[in-house]
Fold this sequence. Notes:
Keywords: WD repeat. It comes from Anopheles epiroticus. This is WD_REPEATS_REGION domain-containing protein. InterPro entries: DCAF, WD40/YVTN_repeat-like_dom_sf, WD40_repeat_dom_sf, WD40_rpt. It is a single chain. The chain has eight helices and 28 strands. The protein is of the alpha+beta class. Strands 2-1-28-27 form a four-stranded antiparallel beta sheet, with no helix packed on it. Strands 3-4-5-6 form a four-stranded antiparallel beta sheet, with no helix packed on it. The protein has a four-stranded antiparallel beta sheet with strand order 7-8-9-10, with no helix packed on it. The longest helix has 19 residues, at about 50-65. The model is unreliable at about 10-50 and about 110-120 (pLDDT under 50).
Amino acid sequence: xxxxxxxxxxxxxxxxxxxxxxxxxxxxxxxxxxxxxxxxxxxxxxxxxxxxxxxxxxxxxxxxxxxxxxxxxxxxxxxxxxxxxxxxxxxxxxxxxxxxxxxxxxxxxxxxxxxxxxxxxxxxxxxxxxxxxxxxxxxxxxxxxxxxxxxxxxxxxxxxxxxxxxxxxxxxxxxxxxxxxxxxxxxxxxxxxxxxxxxxxxxxxxxxxxxxxxxxxxxxxxxxxxxxxxxxxxxxxxxxxxxxxxxxxxxxxxxxxxxxxxxxxxxxxxxxxxxxxxxxxxxxxxxxxxxxxxxxxxxxxxxxxxxxxxxxxxxxxxxxxxxxxxxxxxxxxxxxxxxxxxxxxxxxxxxxxxxxxxxxxxxxxxxxxxxxxxxxxxxxxxxxxxxxxxxxxxxxxxxxxxxxxxxxxxxxxxxxxxxxxxxxxxxxxxxxxxxxxxxxxxxxxxxxxxxxxxxxxxxxxxxxxxxxxxxxxxxxxxxxxxxxxxxxxxxxxxxxxxxx
Length: 500
């Protein structure tokens, strides 16, 4: 069952919603296969019976990773608690970095201290006092609220509860995204349909169903052009597919061939450049591809990781920047400059090492300086791009004896005793789960929150909202019966859409 739900702030208590469990379909064979190798321990001292099981598990894992077979469903989902984090995050690096002070200023946290009010910096605000001061022409602007004051009010009413189900689909919803103006919300799911909703108001009326073609198993990712007139989607195919947002037939879908060395290509991530002339994507062959739309050809292919390591996320550090990033299953983040890439010997301009397992998603603060990365090591890390990892540092050893798609998370991930050598991240956020899919984490909008929060999906079916300044979980909102894979905060309203 795939669901898209709205989470917003309610000022009155509401009764809990009761949901009925949805059947898992008729895929008993694959479900029992998953259960089979869930119980297999890949130890060197296994007996002959377990040895044959281990060999079977290795073969099955390889076939699934290569795309030769697909897991159509998992065990019936059961509610899981959030992990217990014993150690509080260290704020030393964060407080000594510019982002700490700029975020406090942009989100209005310093407002009370500046004006000498009685409340503490992080204490409750008095809306009546703020409105009264504005009415009498008091405050820094002698009248209208500053943007930081409006952000502080908005953050006081941040989303804190599940309110309604926007759409209940029969298959998994892989991704959902608002257009830049917030007037449209678009989803892509395993049933091969792209759904467009009117999000200009909080009613989310379905406007159109866009058919797709050449979809293998599912649409894996999608992105809009900067003008919002077209979109590109990826799947298990050696091409990307681009189409208009305002069409009704699949004949207008055009293939952008990537010409990979690997015949069975799975493209897990795709994004437009800010100028709209290029499209980046990352795939299961350890490579990053760029497509030139004007020349109608692949402009370059960069080997990011080993061919048996997926590239799970790519994107630009700023809308109009030539600098972009990649994150892969080896746990390494690489920074690239499009102007300096040589096909014969591509070298990144910087590397960020600190994750103990694969990177599932990276989001930019869109200021050219800061990014966050979500990882299978059950953490989100905040990075300053001015502080790259030393060339002498080596990435951590990624665990090969667990698979995040069906295995239980190793408990030590939730309470790591020491950081990886060479880790230059300025903050680490723990408390959510990354399981079963490439779960996404993002910065909250600058215009309404001052980017005070990091919000993410979770393997427990919750929406998790972290405070950037403290590392604390401010909200853990329930609403789904399966993992939350993608999250989208409306650019102008205190609403978050979650996709499961």
